[in-house]
Write a structure and sequence with these properties.
Keywords: Coiled coil, Signal. This is Peptidoglycan DD-metalloendopeptidase family protein. The protein is about 55% helix and about 15% strand. The chain is built from three helices and twelve strands; from the N terminus they run H-H-H-E-E-E-E-E-E-E-E-E-E-E-E. The chain is rod-shaped. It binds zinc ion. The site of zinc ion has 5 residues, from loops.
């Protein structure tokens, strides 16, 4: 499982003499003040955690508003890209039309050129025929052959008209050609500017797309940061829950201790010779252990589940494994308390799944054991359990791949990332 690293104050471990039988208490006042001191430390840890949770909340809010900003910038870029793409399509269409126009003009110019050429050929042929016939002789013949002055004028005019008409047509053709060439130049200039615009627009679109990609990258990173912050917060909330359960357990211990002291005081009154007796134990004997449960060891601790060790304590693929994994297939694989103690957490956690925390007092030393990924828990907070008593059924809940028990051992109370290697303490 993944956990963010947040340092929390290390609480001094104080044995809970009242919960566990056979532990002598130094003095009555000391035992309660010790518990109260421990309660204060847990309260400090809780308020620190709550402050961390608040700042994680602030961070999440900031990340969310940053994401909203980036999203609106991305939207703006999307609009800009759309607009530029429209312009690109428009310019591309215009270029296509302009090219068609150029082609049309070129065709028209070609026609005019051909006409000019034909007219030139015609004029040359006519000029040659004049020369062959002695220059303007034929014209003169035409004119001289006139029958009257009026006829002469008509004929002379007719000749002049023919010559003038040839020249006019030629000039008109040349003028048309000039105009068409000018038009072609204008259209080609227009085409060049359109092509330049298209290149600029395409560059702009590329830049906008690159900016959009940057925004997407930024958004993904912000999203990831937010997810991490969420994960960290869940983690802290879970730790806060465990500390709250610890505090509740201490309150119960203080209450038990007060009751015990009251009983002792009453006993001392009625029988002054007896004093300083040990605390009582209300633990019920173990029951409902399935036939497949491991044999209960004779020492202080016993194996918490049957099955094979699939992972030990220590480094594991770049991360640290804070416990032992014991796996066994089957619908009803029992998980038992590793030692006598008091259940103070029995809940569902997103990482540990159904999990039970038990506090033990072994010859004056406090230990905590944790049993994670249970299919279901059979004990609630406040329950007193005996070594080897079934507390749950092996499962695959929370962040678990395959049915197994993830078992952790702590010297003293549970502390974040403070689990110790159970080898040599718990028979595994
Ligand atoms: Zn594990």
């Amino acid at each position: 499982m993944k956990k963010s690293v947040i340092t929390i104050a290390v609480a001094t471990t104080v044995g809970l003499g009242t919960i566990f039988g056979g532990v002598t208490v130094k003095t009555e006042a000391e035992s309660i003040s010790g518990l109260k001191g421990e309660q204060t430390k847990i309260q400090d840890q809780r308020s620190n955690l709550k402050a961390d949770i608040n700042s994680a909340n602030d961070k999440i809010n900031t990340l969310q508003s940053q994401q909203a900003d980036v999203k609106s910038e991305k939207k703006r870029l999307d609009f800009a890209i759309d607009a530029t793409t429209d312009k690109i399509n428009d310019k591309t269409e215009k270029i296509k039309n302009t090219k068609a126009e150029v082609a049309k003009l070129q065709a028209e110019i070609k026609v005019i050129k051909e006409r000019i050429q034909k007219r030139n050929v015609l004029l040359k042929e006519r000029a040659r025929s004049y020369q062959e016939n002695g220059g303007m002789v034929s014209y003169l013949d035409v004119i001289m052959g006139s029958t009257s002055f009026n006829d002469f004028i008509d004929r002379a005019n007719a000749v002049a008209t023919i010559v003038q008409a040839d020249q006019d047509i030629l000039e008109q053709h040349e003028a048309d050609k000039k105009e068409l060439l000018e038009k072609q130049t204008r259209v080609e200039t227009n085409l060049a500017s359109l092509q330049k615009m298209l290149v600029d627009l395409k560059n702009m679109n590329q830049q906008l797309s690159a900016q959009k990609k940057e925004k997407e990258k930024l958004l993904a990173s912000l999203k990831e940061q937010e997810e991490e912050a969420h994960e960290g917060m869940l983690d802290m909330q879970e730790r806060e829950q465990i500390l709250a359960a610890q505090e509740a357990a201490i309150k119960r211990s203080i209450q038990n201790e007060r009751e015990r002291q009251a009983r002792e005081a009453a006993q001392a009154k009625s029988n002054p010779s007896k004093s300083g007796s040990s605390g009582s134990s209300s633990a019920s004997s173990g029951s409902s252990v399935s036939s497949s449960a491991p044999k209960v060891s004779s020492g202080s601790f016993t194996r918490p589940a049957p099955g094979v060790i699939t992972s030990g304590f220590g480094g594991r693929g770049g991360s640290f494994h804070y416990g032992f994994d014991i796996a066994k297939p089957g619908d009803n694989v029992p998980i038992v308390a590793a030692a006598d103690g008091e259940v103070y957490v029995s809940h569902y956690s997103s990482s540990y799944g159904n999990v039970v925390y038990i506090l033990h007092n072994i010859n004056g030393q406090t230990y905590t054991t944790v049993y994670a990924h249970m299919r279901r828990s059979l004990v609630g907070a406040g329950a007193t359990v005996k070594k080897g008593q079934q507390i749950g059924v092996m499962g695959n809940t929370g962040e678990s791949r395959g049915q197994h028990l993830h078992f952790e051992l702590y010297k003293g109370r549970w502390q974040y990332h403070a689990a110790i290697n159970p080898s040599g303490i718990v028979p595994l």
